[in-house]
Fold this sequence. Notes:
- There is one protein chain.
- The protein has helices at residues 39-51, 57-60, 73-86, 109-120, 138-141, and strands spanning 2-13, 17-20, 23-26, 30-31, 89-99, 127-132, 145-156.
- By secondary structure, it is of the alpha+beta class.
- It has a single domain (2-156), classed as CATH 3.30.1330.50.
- It has a five-stranded mixed sheet with strand order 4-1-7-5-6.
- β2 and β3 form a beta hairpin.
- The longest helix is centred in the middle third of the chain and has 14 residues, at 73-86.
- The radius of gyration is 15 Å and the shape is globular.
- The termini are close together.
- 39% of the residues are buried.
- The chain binds the ligand Nc1ccn([C@@H]2O[C@H](COP(=O)(O)O)[C@@H](O)[C@H]2O)c(=O)n1 and 2C-methyl-D-erythritol 2,4-cyclodiphosphate (CDI).
- 2C-methyl-D-erythritol 2,4-cyclodiphosphate binds at residues 8, 33-35, 37, 42, 57-58, 61, 63, 68.
Amino acid sequence: MRIGxxxxxxxxxxxxxxxxxxxRVPHNRGxxxxxDGDVVIHALCDAIFGALALGDxxxxxxxxxxxxxxxxxxxxxxxxxxxxxxxxxxxxxxDVTVICEAPKVGPHAQAMRECLAxxxxxxxxxxxxxxxxxxxxxxxxxxxxxxxxACVLLVLA
Length: 157
Ligand SMILES: Nc1ccn([C@@H]2O[C@H](COP(=O)(O)O)[C@@H](O)[C@H]2O)c(=O)n1
Ligand SMILES: C[C@@]1(CO)OP(=O)(O)OP(=O)(O)OC[C@H]1O
C-alpha cells in the first residue's frame, strides 16, 4: 500500500466559472492558471504522484511549456492514473476537500465524483469530494482564491 497527499491553490481572476473535479462550476470569478486551473484535480494528481514518489505535477507538466496552456486538467489525472497502474497499483480510495467561501461545492460534488471516477477508472464509491469554508479567515475567507487538498491510498492491483 502507498499513501499520498496533495494541496493546490489558485487565485481568483476574471471569468464566470471555475473547473472543479472536471466539472464547470458557475461562479462570479474565474481562476488564474496556466492550465484550466482545476485545484481538485491538481491536488489529486499530486497525491497520486506523491504516493508513487514521482515528484509533483509541475515536474510532469511544467508550467513553462506552452503545450499545457489552457489544458484540461483531466488529462493530467489520466496520466497520473496510468503511471499508478503501470507500477502495479489501483486506487484504494481518494478523499478531496475543496476550501473556499464560494462557489458552493455541495451541489456539484456528485458530478465531480462521477467525473473523477471515470478518469481514474474506478468505482465512484472510492472517490470522495467534500468542501469547507474557512469562516471568512485567510485568503480563501476573503474570497481571493480557492484551495483543495487530497489524500489517496493506493493498493496493489
Ligand atoms: N465552498 C463550500 C463550502 C462549504 N460547503 C458546505 O457547507 C458546509 C459548511 O461549511 P463550513 O465551512 O461552515 O463548515 C460544508 O460542510 C459543506 O457541506 C460547500 O458546499 N461549499
Ligand atoms: C498544472 C500546471 C500545468 O502547467 O499549471 P497550473 O494550471 O498553473 O497549475 P499548478 O497547480 O500551479 O500546477 C503546475 C502545472 O503543472
